[in-house]
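ugh ok fine here u go
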Amino acid sequence: MKKLYFPSLILLMLCLSSCSAIAGIFKAGAAVGVIAVIVVIILILWIASMFRGK
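structure:
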């Protein structure tokens, strides 16, 4: 597995320019961040509603 990892990493680095790779990482990070914030807000509202119901 380790022998296959390094050549595939080199091939990936040669195929992608650094700007497009960084742009893809930030786009994915922004999407995951937005989803995480929405999930946390929903969890807080759900927990708060559990305490109000009693």
